[in-house]
Amino acid sequence: MKKPIAAIGVATTVAALAFGAAVGVARAQRGAAPPRAAAAPQTPSAYAGPRTPDRKPDLNGIWQALGTAHWNLEAHSASEGIPAGFSVVEGGAIPYQPWALAKRTENLKNRLDDDPLRRCFMPGVPRATYLPFPFEITQTPNHIGIAYEFAHATRTIFLDATPHLEDLDFWMGDARGKWDGDTLVVETVSLGDKTWFDQAGNFHSDALKVIERFTPIDATHINYEATIDDAKVFTRPWKISMIVYRRLEKNLELLDYECAEHVYEKLFKRRSGKS
Amino acid sequence: MRSSIGIAAPVLAALLLPAVGAAQDGRAAPPGGRGAAPANYPPYTRPASAYVPPRTADGQPDISGLYVAIPLPRGIETPLVPMAGRGPNRANSEFSYSLNERPKLPEGAIVRPAGVDPPDGKIPLTPEALARRKEIIANQEKVEYLDGRVLCLAPGIPRSTVPAPVVGYQIFQKPGYVVIFYEQNHLYRTIPLDGRAALDPNIRKAMGVSRGRWEGNVLVVEVTNFTNNLNNNWVIGAVSATPGVPAESLTTGHGIPHSDQYRVTERYTPIDANTIHYEARIEDPKVFTQPWTVAFYAFARAPKNYVPVEYACFEGNEKNLLLMTNTDITGVRVNVP
């Protein structure tokens, strides 16, 4: 069984030795796996927007998805405080195995307590992309960094054949990318089993693999697709797609949603009320 | 249970420096009289660097890449009142590395506490701030006073550059920006270089709002607009405070909150292709009697094949907090004993 890194990710001052040991294990194994071979033939592109010095589409900047996928990936009517929305799932419904559909229904019922985001945990992939918070892409030839405003989650996508780390899970996964023509293809594994896809309780197991395709349409729009592959939960791989929009406000920058801080504010307030 | 902090107890506590004469006098000297450096530390001067980094495509000095923290050789501060039987500073021996080899100070570097100005190495707290610090240090078993880094709050600046158990940094550069990802608690900063104005003072960020510029090959960053909601947002602090050490005898920088006036000026000086020296000038007229400065060799180019990993601090912290504070904290379902 994989050990979720969160289990050893206790407070910095206290867990120095434990953490160091665990990471040491991960690093000792680095290099054991061969780099993944580049796959998929290049697809033709109509992209005519700006490019980086290495001739890739320039994705640098702040982006955000619109829509209701963060509430529910599937089609849904409005309920109190929640707008109605179309499905972003290809074919409309998520192909759950029967037991998993029952669990999703249970999750939906208990979502106000059980949604990991209500506990300020990192949102995982692909959920981070379509939260109602912006994210910032920093693009270099070998690494693409994505910084998310929600809970200051980050991802570093390695494009330089760095092998996946073995035997550790990460809330934001372990991401490796490559360019397929003008499409950035990112394969993310080791996502653990603790994150959800949305507030409606759509979920996955630790067998999840996500393949994202960032295809720029022009300078300000990306066609974002994510293929969800998890044989423990679904009857087949399935795909979501949506448009991600470049935020064009002058001098825009990511701000804070320091989720944990608000938890403590609430905790301290309640404690002072008691004492 | 504060005893869990004991994991990080110094194993080199016996390492004694020669007595530092000025430190023995505590706060006796008036602020105006704190000119003289302790006998064994020469006055701080910025490191001269003849190194010229390569240039990025948009002409910035190129300091991008993966780095790891260089351990602080002598903690952060010279204590106001040294504890009997202990040197005023000690090696930062509680520091744990997952790497086979800890990065070393560059050749010729002076082994000294990070607090270099004022020259006596003490943090120039106002009397009110010192009283506040004593209160914080004396109440560490209460979650309201606990180190924000133990709570997995973003530690701000310059604290995010003080070596932590998770040691990696990734510096990106893109046209008009330097971006720093900290492996510690998956923190990040985007530093615009275009001279834009600071943000509205109503907007606060845990890592502050950064505005950068290149002065030759030195990256200078002004950081303002820090979050000031909680007493747990401290200015600085090394890996751990040794239990039982009174505030006057600390060398670790723990327990200093800041006000809404807090601002920091950072200088990142590339010394060679593998080393960046870091300086932070700290100002807060409501907390300090004068600006003060920490400076140290902070970043060493990471070993080949170093891979930063996610440090899910808050996600893994619930049981830890329960042990330390007897407080069940489960997000929205906060149960107060």
Biggest sheet strand order of chain A reads: 5-4-3-2-11-10-9-8-7
* Largest interface chains and counts: A-B, 70 and 78 residues
- How many separate structural domains of chain A? 1
Oligomer: heterodimer
Descriptors:
heterodimer, A: 275 residues, Lipocalin, nine-stranded antiparallel β-sheet, two-stranded parallel ribbon, 11 strands, globular, B: 337 residues, mainly beta, ten-stranded antiparallel β-sheet, 10 strands, disordered C terminus
Walk me through this protein's architecture.
The complex is a heterodimer of chains A (275) and B (337). In chain A, a hairpin with a 3-residue loop joins strand 3 and strand 4. Chain A has six helices and eleven strands. Chain A has a single domain (3-36, 52-274), classed as Calycin beta-barrel core domain (Lipocalin, Beta Barrel). In chain A, 20% of the residues lie in helices and 24% in strands. Chain A is of the alpha+beta class and 275 residues long. Chain B has 337 residues and is mainly β. Chain B has one domain (2-18, 54-325). Chain B has helices at residues 21-24, 127-138, 318-325, and strands at 65-69, 115-117, 168-174, 177-182, 187-192, 209-215, 218-224, 263-272, 275-283, 292-301. In chain B, strands 1, 2, 3, 4, 5, 6, 7, 8, 9 and 10 form a ten-stranded antiparallel β-sheet that branches. In chain B, strand 3 (168-174) and strand 4 (177-182) form a beta hairpin. The longest helix of chain B is centred in the middle third of the chain and has 12 residues, at 127-138. Chain B is globular, with a radius of gyration of 19 Å. Residues 1-35 and 331-337 of chain B have low confidence and may be disordered. At the A-B interface, helix 1, helix 2, strand 3, strand 4 and strand 5 of A face strand 3, strand 4, strand 5 and helix 3 of B.
